[in-house]
Amino acid sequence: MQLIIVNDEQTARQFIDVHVTLNKDVPGWIRPLDKDIEAVFDPEKNKAFRHGECIRWILKDDKGRLSGRIAAFVNKKYKTKGDECLVGGVGFFDCIDQQEAANLLLDTAKKWLQEKGMGAMDGPINFGERNNWWGLLTQGFHEPLYCMNFNPPYYIRLFEQYGFQLFFNQICYGMKVSDQLQPKFFARHAAIEADPAFKAIHIRKNDLPRFAEAFSIVYNKAWAQHAGGKEMGKAQALALFKQMKPLLDEKIAWFVYHNDEPIAIWLNLPDLNQYIKHMNGKFGLLQKLKFLWLKQTGACKKMVGIIFGIIPEFQGKGIDAYMIVEGAKLIQSGMSHYVDYEMQWIGDFNPRMQNVAEALGAIPTRQLTTYRYLFDRTAPYKRHPMVG
């Protein structure tokens, strides 16, 4: 077997080709856009390069056939509460069904991470934000959501026989858009609705700066502490919203305000993969025209829950039910063409959010798993700490 560092256009192209070659015949697979993978490894597009570095390899067999790939990365911002050593990451793993090949890829990444001072590696994870390319698919081998990892079932064996251990499971929940909400939602909604200090509104594309600022406020109060204290600035939030603007459906993105101060977010988007699966990894002029046509004709029947959160001082007071019922009035009306609803993953370390999903009537649709491998094989192993 031949291991090759990705260091030019040809090897970067082969890095993408490995994934296509090994997954093209796997039922449910949707080819990611090439540009989305390339952006992860572009220092001009990925801010993780400000705090870390990465390296990639491709694997060929003795006949020169593509057999695997892996990326390894270190990021000073990547920390989990309770970590007792520096932790690096591996991701974008693909491999033929051969433990020897998988071990070679993982050993190579491990050696590089050790040279960088790491004491453990998590994988498969992303070099960047956790909402993309995070975790190994371990249950629910059907069409992935946009920028979600997809792999054949045998990858589980390759990781676990190497010695990776469960760090946390990532559960996706789903339901039919037409499913009736439980009666308790309406009772809790009525109590909040009676108070004029509260109001729920959906996003308006012509007022993105306002909603981006509201997003950053809620994010920083509700999530920053779970992201290593990393807050989101107003400019960063606005850039994110501008990036999402072509995909935004105003009726499925909601905010709650109390005395005109933002306190909660329920952000949903159409599942972009319902368009991308027709594009074979490309997004040039023809694909953009096709996207507009598919969007105009309502080809996407699935909406995806991206973020649901309430600032701490308003948690447990019925705000979740109020926001969901207000949104459901439009989402479940004749104005909506969506049939299926699936939420982005919720870590099993966050039972409060799991309870919200289950109270909504959603059921698990798939599971991804983030694994951890301690380089000191005698050190005590700890799972991801629980939130709250």
From TrEMBL:
InterPro entries associated with the record: Acyl_CoA_acyltransferase, BcerS-like
Superkingdom: Bacteria
Matching SUPFAM superfamilies: Acyl-CoA N-acyltransferases (Nat) (SSF55729)
Annotated protein name in UniProt: N-acetyltransferase domain-containing protein
UniProt organism field: Chitinophaga arvensicola
